[in-house]
C-alpha cells in the first residue's frame, strides 16, 4: 500500500470535506439511529456555509488522510473559542477523527491522531480533550489505548435524540521525546 498523506483542508476542499464527513458519519452511526435524526444532523453539520466558516476560523483546523488522491479520513481540531465546550486556552479539542469503513484498522485514525498530538505539542497546550458517544466502543478503545482518561459526560444532540458522550482527556507530557 502506498503511504497515506496528511493534508490541511482549505476552502477549495469543502465538497470533499462534505463527502467524507457525511460518508464516515453514516458508516459509523446509521445503524443505531433513525434516518430522520441522521439526515437532520448531516444537513446541518455538513452544510457548505457552516464548513466554510469553520475552515476560515483560525481556531479550527481540518486535515485529510489521503491515499492515492482519495480522501479516506479526516480530523477536525479546535482551540480557544472554537472549542465546542471547554474553551480552555491551555487545551486542544479533537472534535472529529473519522475514517472510511474500508480503512478501519489500517492505522489511518492513528495517523490523524498523531497529527493532532503533534499540533498540541507545538502549541504547548497542557492537554487534549474530546467527546465520544458512549456506544462507540471502537473509538473509546482507541482513545484509551492512546492514554486518554474519562473526566466527565455531556449530551450530544443527534437530531432530536439526546445522546451521552463520554468526555476524555490526555495530559501532554513534554518530557517525552518522539
From TrEMBL:
It comes from the Bacteria. Keywords: Acyltransferase, Transferase. PROSITE patterns: GNAT (PS51186). GO terms for molecular function: acyltransferase activity, transferring groups other than amino-acyl groups. InterPro entries: Acyl_CoA_acyltransferase, GNAT_dom, N-term/lysine_N-AcTrnsfr. Residues 4-173 form the N-acetyltransferase domain. Pfam families: Acetyltransf_1. The keyword Transferase applies. This is GNAT family N-acetyltransferase. It comes from Flavobacterium shii.
